[in-house]
Amino acid sequence: TKPAHRMHAGPAHIGTPRVASPSKNAHAIMHAPPGDDHSNVMRSMPERDRDFTPVTASMVDRHVLARGSQDKVVDNTNRKGKEERPDPIAPTPTCTSSILQEDPQNLVRRASITSDSDAIPADVNHHRVDEPQAADGTSEQVVRHHPNKARGQGTLGRSLANIPSANTIGIPTLGSHNQHDCRESKRSSRDIGTRINQIIPEGGFVGNLNNLPKARFNFVPHREVGLMTAVYLDEEFGMPCISMTPAGIIDTAECIRQMQERVGKWASAPPKEKVDHEPYIDQHTRSVPQAAWSSRSIDRQNSTGKRAVIPGDATHATAMTKIPSREMGIRACRAGTYCKHDAERSNEQVRGSRDEILVTDDHTEAGDTIGRVEPPAISGTQMERHVGKRLDTPRGVTSPPVHIQNFPSGYRPSSGYEGTNQIADSVHNPHTLGTEDHLLDILGGHDTEAVTESSPIEQDMLIRSPESQLGSSQIPRSVRGKTKGKTEKSARQNGITNITVEVMYAAREILGYS
Amino acid sequence: MKRFETLTLERETGNYHTSRPISCVARSHQKIEDSSPLVVGTKTCGYSPQNAPGAMIYAEPRYAMAESEEGDIPAQPNDHGESKRLCPRVIGNRDPSVIARTGTRTTEAIKMDLEGMAPKPESEIGIPIVVARANGPDYAPTQGEDTAPAAMAHRCAERYVGSVDGRDDHQPVQSSLPAATECPPKPVMVPPAGRETNPPPVLPGSLPPMVASQPNSESKRQSVRVWGRLPAQSYTALPSLGAGVYVCGVNPSSSRTATTLMRRRKRRLIGAPPPTGPDGTRAWIEKTRPVSGVQTQGSRERERQVWEGSKDYPDSVRGKPVFLTGDNPLEASPARSPIRCGTIVHEIGIPYMDKRYQAAESAPLRDTCRHMCIPMPRIAEKPDNYDQIQRMRESRPDLAITGTANANPSEARGIDTKRSVESTSAQIHGFTNARGVPRPVTRPLRRNDLGDLGWADLVKRAGDNDPPLAQR
């Protein structure tokens, strides 16, 4: 047993549904006690999905604990097959299954015999992998299953399409701004003349996976999920892969250049296919997004030399360290990822952009470091946002784990050229938060006190009993003023001068909540 | 749709959706402000209390976790060493009055003896360790929440009225704690106040602090003294219990705490529905006061007053069909006041219902239905998620109260929907908060109907398994 506190990456059984649910028509049967289908709650609430999440919990209750699941999972798999005709069904184990030492492969084998749907096991060990690793693993397993099957059936799409196309791999649900990033990447691809063959898993039909090899290359924008799949496709079908996050002006340009190169590499047709995206890159760096210019604009010079602490997952920690450092003059005093298994590469990527490394999945360690270092700003996960609140440090959230605020209605990608604008804003805003007050202080810009204080108009003779004052203090701050006002109004209306707890409650009853 | 003449409870034991007991335990421990919960389980177990409030609101749940690793699966004989190692880290710089060791399905599955492991570290570090088991396979979420105060019930000091009775064998006398605690370390002698004419009840059930003080005020008006609550606001404020002390729940799920108090501590239970809504509050007062030997005065008049004051809400729901799906922390009681307002509740889904403890709620529910000439709702325990959703769509309710995972999909399909979990944070107990029941429940109905905007629903036309409901 080891002490653990809040975790950055969730457990494995959240990772698997992140790949299963966005696939059209897939369904996961989770072998779990009540509450493990929390991914349903996440997808429905923060992500505001309008459909019922295609994850069903095959309940582990006390009978299952005592006797093992026996036929339950298989029966549920078959039942779901009839009810909703999904394809495929993925019986998903959870940590309870490993503790009960159930064999997912066996469950799948039995289910395959009786069910019409394709049953694919999501074989992830909950003690060894966390959420992104499980998502990555599941994605690879699903993808591996289909081309193999197709090859057996002779339906594998091997011939390259004439128009260059690419697969985007690794857009699971519940990612940070993933939907927007996906849209942005589609837009950019269109701009440079590369079609999108398939996107995995978001909105993809698992049945189409046999056509994956038709694309010229695979694009993996987020390392945490998708890399294993791309590696498999490279080994099996020789498909090259671009594993790079197009975030920030420099890396977006680099990404486009790499795409240009991959497309050219596989060009079977004569030179008319030779592409040059440099003019596109040039135009987009100078004028289309505001980021490059705004970072150089005069008032933003105040940010130069500022420091920040930047933790996050592998993708975002890297991006959010490189971009401010290379493009905005803001250097990371501490940066690093909580994805410890990928730390080496992350550290390599950000060399030169940060002073010291902070690789940890212990949020108290991250918090202590921030407390010690006292940076002017923090750019990290929700955990660090809490730390920033506690230490009164300007902070922004730029990395998963996700929160309901990471699903804005507006278009907020963090990659591509529009992403550079969003990032620029999110980096500059915390740095200017303190400046406002600071300048107002220096220039004497605050409004005069007499005007700003809300004046107590009547000199009232109301006496407040100590209990009622204590009661007041228990009212949430946001409604305290209004509630007090209502109580006093009600007291005056009824000619009461002594405000006791009873008077408070009576007012509440009559006038209700604000 | 079948209608029932008597209140029928059907246990479906299907694949039901609900939240994890652990997150409710965390909630319970948060109420006890000087407690330090230590959850023993896997990453999964830690994820829930962290994520559930954290992903939706900006809460920072206060708890620590001992994460079991793969090597822990065959239960180790060295569990004590582990405890000794972990407890100081858990305490850290918080200085808690109690450590609440919370078991999960992990500890259950590997048969970890949490109770057996507690006494030794307790004597070594000098802080009481209380064990609460909250595992999903055995408990519904609210049952899990209930295990925390139930565990604390054993730690309440004895209170003797009159002469010293023999000490209860099960009562571990509080070890003398180092300074700073006001917990009565020894049994408290209280001079007899007549022959128990007014034994004050102890109220099990979690309430927000502001609401917790309100029934006190109401009860004072009606001369019902409240002795204490479980969970109390701090461990040191746990009520002391004595012979003749009654127990009366304020939440339907406090059955375990109540039973513990009844069996182990030999207290008597007042069977009353939870004091939610004007009718529930009146019934609760009517049941608690006679026990104290005082006649009820004017509680019916008070109830009438409150109904009068919130007239606009019942008017907006009268005659409307309502459906409550399975993730309902307050079980059947949120249905009672709406029925009293005239809604037709088709079905109430709950993870678990303790029939005996809840007999006090079933009776008023049945009577209210009869009084309003409304068919009895079907109560489905552990409803199968898929089947229940089909039933919900068939019944075409005007309002659905569902769990969080089904709320948005339901709303998108043109059914005005409310999340049941909001009842746990809403203030709904007592006369003062009478509007707390009808107001949030009717909020979806007071919003613009989708139909007014010209749409039947807002789901994407995939064409396959989700035909939209026709416009009403």
TrEMBL record, chain A:
CDD domains: Pchlide_reductase_B. Residues 474-508 form the Light-independent protochlorophyllide reductase subunit B-like C-terminal domain. Its cofactor is [4Fe-4S] cluster. The keyword 4Fe-4S applies. Pathway: Porphyrin-containing compound metabolism; chlorophyll biosynthesis (light-independent). Residues 12-430 form the Nitrogenase/oxidoreductase component domain. GO terms for molecular function: 4 iron, 4 sulfur cluster binding; ATP binding; metal ion binding; oxidoreductase activity, acting on iron-sulfur proteins as donors. Keywords: 4Fe-4S, ATP-binding, Chlorophyll biosynthesis, Iron, Iron-sulfur, Metal-binding, Nucleotide-binding, Oxidoreductase, Photosynthesis, Plastid. InterPro entries: ChlB/BchB/BchZ, LI-POR_suB-like_C, Nase/OxRdtase_comp1, P-CP_red_C, Protochl_reductB, Protochlorophyllide_Rdtase. Residues 1-39, 68-98, 132-190, 286-308, 467-491 are annotated as: Disordered. It catalyses: chlorophyllide a + oxidized 2[4Fe-4S]-[ferredoxin] + 2 ADP + 2 phosphate = protochlorophyllide a + reduced 2[4Fe-4S]-[ferredoxin] + 2 ATP + 2 H2O. Its EC number is 1.3.7.7. The keyword Cell inner membrane does not apply. GO terms for biological process: light-independent chlorophyll biosynthetic process; photosynthesis, dark reaction. It comes from the Eukaryota. Residues 286-305, 467-476 have a biased composition (Polar residues). Residues 68-87, 178-190 have a biased composition (Basic and acidic residues). PANTHER family: LIGHT-INDEPENDENT PROTOCHLOROPHYLLIDE REDUCTASE SUBUNIT B. Protochlorophyllide reductase is composed of three subunits; ChlL, ChlN and ChlB. Forms a heterotetramer of two ChlB and two ChlN subunits. Belongs to the ChlB/BchB/BchZ family. NCBIfam families: DPOR_BchB. Component of the dark-operative protochlorophyllide reductase (DPOR) that uses Mg-ATP and reduced ferredoxin to reduce ring D of protochlorophyllide (Pchlide) to form chlorophyllide a (Chlide). This reaction is light-independent. The NB-protein (ChlN-ChlB) is the catalytic component of the complex. This is Light-independent protochlorophyllide reductase subunit B. It comes from Selaginella moellendorffii (Spikemoss). The gene is chlB.
UniProtKB/TrEMBL annotation, chain B:
One of its GO terms (biological process) is photosynthesis, dark reaction. Residues 198-207 have a biased composition (Pro residues). Keywords: 4Fe-4S, ATP-binding, Chlorophyll biosynthesis, Chloroplast, Iron, Iron-sulfur, Metal-binding, Mitochondrion, Nucleotide-binding, Oxidoreductase, Photosynthesis, Plastid. Residues 92-432 form the Nitrogenase/oxidoreductase component domain. InterPro entries: LIPOR_BchN/ChlN, Nase/OxRdtase_comp1, Protochl_reductN. It comes from the Eukaryota. Residues 68-89, 164-207 are annotated as: Disordered. It holds the Pfam family Oxidored_nitro. SUPFAM superfamilies: Helical backbone' metal receptor (SSF53807). One of its GO terms (molecular function) is 4 iron, 4 sulfur cluster binding. This is Photochlorophyllide reductase subunit chlN. It comes from Selaginella moellendorffii.
